# Entry
Amino acid sequence: EADVQFEKYLDIKFPTGLNFGDGSPEKKAMKEKAMKKFNDWFTGKTKSGGNVTKKYEAVLSIKDNANSIAAAARLGQITEDFSDQLFTAEIPAEVRKSQIIDGYDVAQDKVDAYCDALTTAAEPLADQSLKAYGVCLSKSTELGWFSEWSKLCERELGQIAGAHHRRVVHVGQPEQMVGALARLHVLEGHVVDRLAPGERVA
# Structure
């Protein structure tokens, strides 16, 4: 049953065609429509992730070697899928569109702000994945059971840690994003506060 719910969770894809407008009053309705579409996806993904996490945590609590390691790996995959969708989300055409303000094209600022906002939402989820895959390896050691699942956890742990390091190294000057982010309002505060469906994973 847990795997069936997991597959349904994976089917909840990041919404396409989001258009948050350009911050002008004329595009307010467009932005609100896009925000509703995004929030509905985020809420649905969070709820689904929370439900399937409970299923795998129940399996993990039973010291059955093969199933416990598989469940621990799935816990990492849940938040990894969520963060990956945010990290690789489509940049809307309206965000990429050239927009001249006082002789300066703010298109790149809008793109940076959009990506920065999604990254802010995604990074706590990636951190949860790191913790979950760490639990997977610890559980494998505790039970003395090594399998393809434990190898998956080790591999994903290394990949996520490496990607996290690269994001930290290449991040731009956050203070330069404040103005653009304030104009774009891509993610509302209450959305960011509801981030991690796997927050119980230690």
DSSP finds eight helices and two strands in the chain. The helical segments are 2-10, 28-60, 65-87, 93-96, 107-143, 148-170, 178-184, 189-192. The chain has a mean pLDDT of 77.
